[in-house]
Design brief:
The complex is a heterodimer of chains A (about 220) and B (about 200). By secondary structure, chain A is α+β, with helices and mostly antiparallel strands. Chain A has one domain (about 1-55, about 95-220): Jelly Rolls, CATH 2.60.120.10. Chain A is built from six helices and nine strands. Chain B is mostly helical and about 200 residues long. Chain B contains ten helices and no strands. The two termini of chain B are about 25 Å apart. The chains are: A alpha+beta (about 220), B mainly alpha (about 200).
Chain lengths: ~220, ~200
């Protein structure tokens, strides 16, 4: 798979440092599952965490902290985890691994809700209902989503089909990493619908007023 | 077996060994022979550092102590899954601490990170060459971190060590969010360049 659109380096650092919220971590992880280059880059960003940890200040541990840990290990002598993969991957799955537990292994089994002519949506349940929203969009061929800005950052990962906007064509595995200042007008080319995974930052109240003006168009 | 030999070399001072190399060998020794002395060495180095970053991230004293126990327990349990082709021992332990911080301090979930780890698991035994490259990567990043400008280092430290979001960092430093992002990109680009020189 040739992936032409990758994660912004600032987003990679947020992923590695652990400051993204759940919806964004899932979209980044789904892209990383498909993109070798960004997976390597994420490991590079994690190496920064290692460097800072090794160079960190220290805080004294309570006396006997190590003995306490060894005691716990002795009381619960669970085996060390093995180095082999615990479960077999579903070869027929067209859903990246970090997304399977949320939407199941197949895109053609998703239940959609029509939100506008030619635009269907599937809200994804997260472990925590708070924070950014996470959903799938199913956009029919020939459809253009009206030009819109965002109340906050937005990550869009294409899972099937192709859409185009001012930034180019986006196909399976490509990710659009947009901040709140960007406006775009995605258009679905070709004969097949485009299915995207989207994380949208919860808009602040002030931005929400502007955002709501666009909501009737796309229901997002 | 190889790991044991390397540890023997280490003890006999056959060759000078960097901290990054030493830590990789300690993990290898925990993995191959449940070596509690090696685990104690690793605990003495990382325990107080993990506690420090948990305190900086807003944990109470008691929670920070508990998180050290949780992180080091995971290090022991998952030692066999340490893969030097992904990074150094310090980077691996950082990711375990990061995940514990998300799960127990931020009330989030580290599951997507675990899903990626699982994707990458291979049954190959780590070999000496992978270990050497991983140690070199850690040394290159440590050297590069010393060279990046103070304003970039400050932002990176707040993100990694205190887990403050980019918009919160912007507010705290009273600079636009775009400035925080561009300093992050600059810092990362430098580190990435030095890592690519290794390939």
């Amino acid at each position: 798979m040739t992936i032409g659109h990758h994660l912004d380096n600032a987003t990679l650092l947020q992923y590695a440092s652990g400051e993204l919220d759940e919806a964004f971590i899932i979209v980044v992880a789904a892209h990383i599952a498909m993109c070798d280059a960004c997976r390597q880059a994420a490991h590079g960003a994690e190496e920064i965490g290692g460097g800072l940890l090794a160079d960190s200040d220290t805080a004294d541990l309570s006396a006997g902290a190590f003995e306490q840990l060894m005691q716990k290990l002795d009381q619960d002598p669970s085996e060390q985890a093995s180095a082999t993969r615990p479960q077999k991957m579903d070869a027929a799955s067209d859903v990246p691994a970090p997304l399977v537990r949320h939407i199941g292994p197949r895109l053609d089994a998703i239940r959609w809700k029509t939100v506008a002519p030619g635009v269907r949506k599937h809200d994804i349940k997260k472990a925590s209902p708070a924070g950014s929203s996470l959903y799938l969009l199913h956009i029919a061929p020939g459809m253009a989503v009206p030009e819109h800005g965002h109340g906050g950052a937005e990550l869009t990962l294409v899972l099937s089909g192709t859409y185009s906007d001012a930034f180019g064509a986006f196909s399976r595995g490509d990710i659009a990493d947009l901040d709140e200042y960007v406006e775009h007008q995605p258009f679905v080319e070709g004969e097949i619908p485009c299915i995207c995974l989207v994380a949208t930052e919860a808009p602040t109240r002030f931005k929400g007023i502007i955002n709501r003006l666009f909501q009737p168009f796309i229901g997002i | 077996m190889q790991a044991v030999l390397l540890v023997e070399n280490l003890k006999n001072d056959v060759a000078p060994v960097s901290l990054a190399q030493e830590h990789i060998l300690l993990v290898a020794s925990i993995s191959s022979s449940q070596d509690r002395t090696a685990f104690n060495d690793l605990f003495r180095f990382y325990g107080p550092r993990i506690k420090s970053i948990m305190l900086k991230s807003g944990a109470s004293h008691d929670l920070a102590e508990d998180l050290v126990q949780i992180v080091m327990m995971t290090v022991w349990r998952k030692a066999k899954q340490f893969a030097p082709e992904r990074g150094s021992a310090a980077a691996w332990i950082f990711t375990i601490a990061r995940n514990a911080r998300i799960d127990h301090l931020r009330r989030g979930t580290s599951q997507p990170y675990l899903d990626i780890d699982e994707l990458e698991i291979t049954s190959d035994e780590p070999n000496g060459e992978d270990n050497a490259i991983a140690a070199q990567r850690a040394e290159i990043v440590a050297a590069a971190l010393k060279k990046i400008p103070a304003d970039q280092r400050e932002i990176i430290e707040q993100a990694y060590m205190e887990s403050i979001s980019q918009s919160e960092i912007a507010k705290k430093l009273n600079v636009p969010l775009g400035t925080v992002k561009s300093r992050m990109r600059l810092a990362y680009a430098k580190l990435k360049d030095s890592l690519e020189d290794l390939k």
